[in-house]
Amino acid sequence: MSDTITIKKPFDSHVHLRRGAMLRAVTPITAEKFYSAIVMPNTEPPIETVEQAVEYKKEILAALKNHQGVALMVSAFEPLMTLYLTKKLTPAEIEKGVSNDVCKIYGVKSYPYGATTNSQWGFRSILEAKDVLKKMEEVGMPLLLHGEVHLNENNEEEDPYDGEKLFIADVLPRLLETYPKLKVSLEHMSTSQAVDFMEKNGKDGQLVATVTPTHLMYDRRQAFSGGYRPLLHMKPLIKRREHKERVRELVKKGLPFISAGTDSAPHPESKKFSSCCVFGVFNSPVAVELYTQVFDELGCLDKLENFMSMNGPRFYGLEPSSETITLAKKDWQTSEPVVTEEDVKVWPICNTQHGLGNETVHWQVQA
Ligand SMILES: [Zn+2]
Question: Which of 23, 55, 57, 236 could form a disulfide with 190 if both were Cys (CB 3.0 to 4.6 A apart)?
């Protein structure tokens, strides 16, 4: 087995860049290792108009332009903007976004009400958004799903470990039946039920799914190793080992409709290590390395480039990167947080200070 691998520069199908000082701290990290990324709209306030997306995109590009040191490396990074499926989103806005010259909208993200960070503006059920979904189907705008059921019909909370299973069993089939031509991406899949569904129904360009490095690397044993682990606290929750193994087997198959979406979701230290730890795993400093590590463990490094760099852009009608990155099999550790200009610490997973212990990353991106 080779000790280095060169692939086209990766594409992140799912990233949270936040705003303000946090955005300025984390965006260069994504832009250094990914040539482009689908940027999630659950900022506060949410991105629900093309105009807001234009402003958000400007803020992201400004953060890269002004960032000292990595400016050259990240010069070509393209943030791809999305809208949040709130009750305010209109079919007219979809129409405006699909062909917008200044800031094309690449997808609409749906969050189940109350299920994760800034999901309080979402619909109780995606199926309520009839007019917008119809317009999206008509114009070919992808729907990006946080596929979990949080509240049942009686407004009672479901078991959070069952959210994805319930969505796959009930909501997703009804959605696909009602809008057969709608392009759909099931984000951050985490269960055997999602794997079964995608193996049966996944279709290149039509029904795709993204996988995080976190769900490939960890299961509940680590999430509760020696106590609860805030850095692994995310939605969908890290599941049992059996689910992780199924997701790993899925990526090993090299299917054209499965791609990398890191779901890197930074939070300040004060919100992660608090009495009520917020959802979201910050993984952009190690994401490409961890994906490579998993593919190496699975003996399928030959499938890495399609998963990381080809399948995502193809779904969004884009060319893959013309640049490449090289990774070497080399152990390294990180113990440092990312620190914003306001001196706020943001801890990535897999670090030796707040991680699971003496965590070692086995692959390294070469300069
Ligand atoms: Zn996310």
Answer: 236
